[in-house]
Design brief:
Shape: globular
CATH class: Alpha Beta
Largest sheet: 8 strands, mixed
CATH topology: Spore Coat Polysaccharide Biosynthesis Protein SpsA, Chain A
Order of helices and strands: EEEHEHEEHEEHEEEEHHEEH
Distance between the termini: 22 Å
Strand order of the largest sheet: 5-6-4-1-7-12-9-13
Oligomer: single chain
Length: about 240
Amino acid sequence: MQSVILAAGRGIRLKPITDEIPKCMVGIKGVPLLEILMQKLANSGIGDFNLVVGYKKEIIEEHFGKEFEGIKIKYFVQSEPKGTAHALSLVEKHINEKFLLTNSDVIVPENNYKKMLETDEFEKLDALALSRKVNDPWRYGVLKTEQKKIIDIIEKPSPGNEPSNLVSTGIYRFKKDIFESIKEIKLSQRGEYELVDAVKNYITKGKIVESLLCEGECLDIGTIEDLEKANEIESEFPE
C-alpha cells in the first residue's frame, strides 16, 4: 500500500529548535521524527513514500534522498501553509487506490500501522481512522461514533458536552475518492483547507468510516514539553 506523509509543518511551538530545521526533523534520542516514522512504516509493509514538504524542505531531501530502506520517495512541495487537506490534494495524481495518511509529528507503536494495512479485515470500509482516548476531549475534534462507525466529528465541544473521549491521531487509511471530498470543502475559519472537514464531508456522502483504537502510547510532538517527554520514555521510541 502507498503512504502519504504530511511533513510541511514549520513547528512554531518547537522554537528555537525549528529555527534551523523543519518540525519533522526534530529528534527523539538523536533520530529525526520522520525517520522513526518511515522506519515503522517500512517495517509494516508500506510500498512507497509520498512526502509533502514545505518549510526547509531541502534538509529533508538531503537527509533521505530518493529512497529509504529500498522504498522509493516522491516529494511534493506545499509552498504556502494552506492546510492539511490542501497538502494531501497535492499527491492525488500519484495515488492508485488505497493509501495510508499520517502526519509526520505523530508516532504510534508499529503494530498499529500493520493493523491499518490489513486489507481483508477492512475491505468493507471506505476509510479507517486510528483514534486515541484523551482526558480532555474538548481540546480536540471529538469522534461521535455508533459502535466503531464514525458518524460525525465535533470540533472542540464545550466541556461536558463531548460525544466521547475519542479523538483522531491524524492517521487514516483512505480510498482515492477522498480527493473528491477535498475538492468540495471550503476554507475554514483559520483560512485553511482542513482534513477534518473533508472527512466530515466524506461521512455525509454515506461513506463508511470506522475508528480503530490505538494500542500503546501515541506520541504527538507539538511542543518542547512533548519532545522532552518523548525523550524520557523508555519504550520503542525509537526502535
